[in-house]
Amino acid sequence: MRGRRLQVLPLGVAFICLGCILLTGGCSSGSARFRYVLGSTGAPVTSVDVDVDGKTVLSGISYGAAGTYKSSSSGSRQFEVFQTGTTTNPFFNGSVSLSRGDTTVISVNTFSTMAMTAFTDDNTAPTSGNIKLRFIHASPTAGGVDVYVIQPPNTIGGLSPQLTVQYKEASAYLSLTAGTYEVVMTQAGTQNPISGLDNTYSLTAGQVRTIVILDGPSGGGPYRQVILSDLN
């Protein structure tokens, strides 16, 4: 009898350990949020709806609109993009991987070759008195972009850019003292300004923001900066 108990005990321990693994994150999905920015140019329609796993979660999204976060599950999700009010002939139908936590999803390329690019967001709070600022390059025609973040009335003359971003890339987060900043973007390696990519923002302590670089709706310039509210 004692021998049988010794044989059963390791099996019981194994089941307990397995349960602990599953409860502490061994499963393939978890809590996630995503937001969507329509960045594909040459739209044949004025707005789109976005379905995730067969359910409409966003409606009437226009080009360059700053999206808010929607709840989802992490892992591979099936995204479809339709003309608003329809559920046939999607502009995009494919899988998008959502990380646990927050993700920014941007449709890129032209409408006829629409693809999705996902960027993991870090929405942890900035240190006291500071803000966090990040840049995503989603403009297919702007080329490499140098980014200067300056406080008016300063100019970029004689300065080096804080960072350079290429198409479909996200920068690291800049940590800055809260205040008013001018964001000037130039052609990489030069101080030649890019049309439309010079804007001023007032940012308060505790905020996290992402600035997305986009073409004009038909492609090419004038370009635009779209600022997304990540936190606060």
What characteristics describe this protein?
232 residues, Immunoglobulin-like, 2 domains, 4-stranded mixed sheet, 4-stranded antiparallel sheet, 16 strands
Description:
The protein has about 230 residues and is mainly beta. It folds into 2 domains: about 30-120, Immunoglobulin-like; about 125-230, Immunoglobulin-like, CATH 2.60.40. Helix content is about 10%, strand content about 50%. It has 1 helix and 16 strands. The strands form 4 sheets. The protein has a 4-stranded mixed β-sheet, with no helix packed on it. The protein has a 4-stranded antiparallel β-sheet with strand order 3-2-5-6, with no helix packed on it. A hairpin with a 6-residue loop joins strand 7 and strand 8 (about 115-120). It is globular. The model is unreliable at about 1-25 (pLDDT under 50).
Brief characterization of the structure:
This protein is mostly beta strands. The protein has one helix at residues 2-26, and strands at residues 31-38, 48-52, 55-61, 70-73, 75-83, 92-98, 101-108, 115-121, 130-137, 145-150, 163-165, 174-177, 179-187, 193-203, 208-214, 224-231.
CATH homologous superfamily designation of the largest domain: Type VI secretion system, lipoprotein SciN
Indicate the CATH topology of the largest domain: Immunoglobulin-like
Parts with pLDDT < 50 across at least 5 consecutive residues: 1-27
The tally of helices reads 1
Mean pLDDT: 90
Q: Beta fraction of the residues?
A: over 45%
* Order of secondary-structure elements: HEEEEEEEEEEEEEEEE
Class from helix and strand fractions: mainly beta
Q: Could you state the oligomeric state of the chains shown?
A: single chain
Number of domains: 2
